[in-house]
Amino acid sequence: MNLQALIEDIRQQVLPFYDRGQVADYIPALASVSPHQFGFAIHTLDGQEYGCGESDVPFSIQSISKAFMLALTLQADGEALWRHVGKEPSGNPFNSLVQLEYEHGIPRNPFINAGALAVTDRAISHFGDAHLQLLAWLRNEAGNPRLAADEAIAASEREHGDRNAALAHFMKSYGNLDHPVETVLDHYFHNCSISMSCLELARAGLFLANHGASPQTGRQYLTRSQAKQVNAVMLTCGTYDAAGEFAYRVGLPVKSGVGGGLLAVIPGKMSIAVWSPQLDARGNSVLGLEALDRFTTRTGLSIF
Ligand code: GLU
What we know:
This protein is of the alpha+beta class. The protein has helices at residues 3-14, 64-77, 98-102, 113-127, 130-142, 151-159, 162-173, 181-192, 198-204, 206-209, 224-237, 243-249, 286-299; strands spanning 22-23, 39-44, 49-53, 59-60, 195-196, 254-256, 261-266, 270-275, 278-279. Glutamic acid is lined by residues 62-63, 94-95, 113, 157, 164, 192, 257-258. Residues 62-63, 94-95, 113, 157, 164, 192, 257-258 line the site of glutamic acid. One of its GO terms (biological process) is glutamate biosynthetic process.
């Protein structure tokens, strides 16, 4: 199969979907991104790399950072992590407060904002500087020592972060945060604000396709079982309220972010990153979903 020709063809097919969605603007600094961009990158376990469109343009990874943060913290915390956060889909918006009260401050899963804040809190307990730990890991795996958070986006998130602050205070009141709310938020916002390209993301996510071991650096980050767990949570909770539609149309573990990026994993084969900033009503990249749907349909590659 000629994967390079295939992704270029898919790119042509999805470009007409421009302007069927909108760039996220609830974080004002995200709204300035040029909307008509599309990147597609693949990294295979046997070391091949493919990219087309704007696959080398850095963008704000936003909630895709939650998948890496989960892996990093699971590695350090093991099963104990699941006392602080659940692993069930939420069926509520990613920043909902309602469910948290019903469930006594234990967020449904690590990919809604409350869950990611709880994971970040655990990461601070283990690493001290959770953001630097994540950044070091991503720099190493993506092969780019200059990867960094976009400080303008981090500041914009902080300035408009009342809801995330409310979630964190709420969890703290239930005893589910060990560190000061401001500290946890600061690490969380910086993680969301990391800029990466599709090529870098696909490279960094490859360990999830390889049962927890990085083919690049040879490091075993997660046990085989933990890699399965992260992929399972991505499949069931990784794309906001559209996890059912993604499982149905794409059939892969996927984590999305409001920057318009999507990281998808084909266990045993490859990792894929797609980016296009215009989002559908549920917060996922319009062109990204169309592209992944076409990719798995045309290759027959999915986990099902
Ligand atoms: N930093 C964003 C927030 O906390 C992440 C949202 C997302 O990508 O889902 O609202």
